[in-house]
Amino acid sequence: MDTGLRLKYHRIKKKISLEDAASGILSPRELKKIESGMKEPALKELEALCKKLEISLAPKDNPVGKVLVKNFKTALLHPQNKGKIMEQYSDIQDHPLLSVDEDIELEYRIQQIRYFIVTGDLDSAEEKLKDMERFKEFMDQEQFYLFHKYNGNYHYILNDFEKALKTYLMAEKIAPSTVPASEKGDLYYSIGISASQCWDTDLAYKYTDLALKTYQQEFIPKRIVECHMNMGVTHHRLGNFKTSLEHYKNALTIGKKLEIDILRFTTEYNVGYSYFLNQEFELAIYHMEAALEYLPKEYTADLLLSYAILITSNIEKGNLNEAKAWATKGKELIESKNLNLYSPTSEVFKIGYLEVLALNYLIEENFKEFEEIFINHLISCLENYKNFYELGYFYSVMGNVYYKQRLFEKSAFMLNKSQEAFKKLVRIT
User: Fold this and answer.
1) What percentage of residues in the chain have a pLDDT greater than 70?
2) pLDDT tens across 70-92, in order?
3) Kindly report the CA angle at 116 between 62 and 141, in degrees rounded to 5?
4) pTM summary value
5) 294 Rama class: left (phi>0) / alpha (psi -120 to 50) / beta
6) Dihedral, CA of residue 27, residue 33, residue 35 and residue 37, to nearest 10
7) CA-CA distance, 311 to 297, in Å (whole number)?
8) Which phi and psi (to 5°) does residue 338 adopt?
9) What's the per-residue H, E or C state across 61-83?
10) Using CA atoms, how far apart are residues 166 and 187, in angstroms rounded to an integer?
C-alpha cells in the first residue's frame, strides 16, 4: 500500500474518525487528500499521524509473515484433516508477524473467513465477513476475488445455493490471471456443486467438467472423487444413466484408496443408489450395506436414506425378513432421536425420515397410516426434490394398496401418477 492507503487502513482498523485522526496535526480535508493519494504528507505530519495510529513510518519487510500466511492458505485450499488445520491456526493466530505488515495482515484476515467456514464456526465467519467489508478498497485483485469466493462458501454452507452460485460466478469474473490452477479448479468445483444444488444441470456439467480436468492435471484425488460424484448426479438428472454410473464407479475406485470414511460412504452410497435406480437391487443392497460400514452414527439423515433404499430393495427382491430387519433399525433410530415431522433440518433429511416411516407402515400392513403419510407429506417432499423414481415407486405401491381394497378408481389414479413420475426420469439427452 502507498502511504495514504496505509494511513487510511489503520485509521479504519482502529475505528478512528477522519476528524479525530487529523486533530492537532492537520485539517481533516488535508488528511482526506493524503489518504486518497492526491497529496504526500510532510515528514512532520507523517510522523505525527503514524504516532497517533501506532504504526511505523514505512512498511516493514516481512518474509516470515508471508510464509506463515502462504502455508495457512495452502492448508485451507483442500482441507482433509480439520484437527490439523485447527492446530495450525492455534499456532499462528496471535503471531506478531501477521500484523506488522498491512498486506500480509489483510491476506491473513481474508483467510480467516475460510478457516471459520472449514471448521464450522459460522458465527465467526459471518462476523469476519462483515468486518472485512470495511476493507474492500484496500484489497488487491486476488484478495478481492478470494473475499467473494469465501462469501460464496459461507452462503453455500447456509444452504443458500442461489446466492452462493451468484457470488461464485462474480468471483470468476474478477479472478486475476495469476490465480494458480488448483485454486481455479476449486472455484470451478464450487460453481459446479452450487449449480447442481440449484438444478442448473448445464452449468453444473460445464463447471464440474472443468474442475475435473484441472484436478486430474494437478492430481488431487479427493477432489477428483468429488467431481466424479457431481458428474454422476448431473448425468443422472440429464437422463444419461449409464454415464452417471460410470462416474460413480470411477469415484468409488479412487475413493477406496483414500482413508476418508465419509468419502468412502458417499462413493459406495452413490453407486448403490445408481443400481437402485436401474432396478439392480442385489447390487444396490451390496453397496448400501458397504456404505454403512463407513458412516458415523451421528449422520442421522444419511442413515435413514440408506435404510430406506435397503428396505425397498429387499422388498423388491422378496427378502421380507431382511426388509423388516432394516425397517426395525430405521424405526429404532427415529425413536431414539425423538424425531417427528418438524425435526429434520433439510428436505433430504425429511425424505429419509418419511420414507422409513412409510415403509414401516407398509410392512406392518398399516395401510391407513401409510396412506396418510404418503399423500399428506411424502408426495410434496419428493416432488420438491425431484426424486421421481421414489415418487413413482410409492405411487405404484399406493395404487396396489387401493386395488387390494377394491378401490379401483383410486388405484387407477395412483398408477397413472406413477407412470407420469417414471416418465420424468427418461429425459435422455
Assistant:
1) 99
2) 999 888 887 767 888 898 899 99
3) 50
4) 0.81
5) alpha
6) -150
7) 19
8) 55, 45
9) CCHHHHHHHHHHHHHHHCCCCHH
10) 12
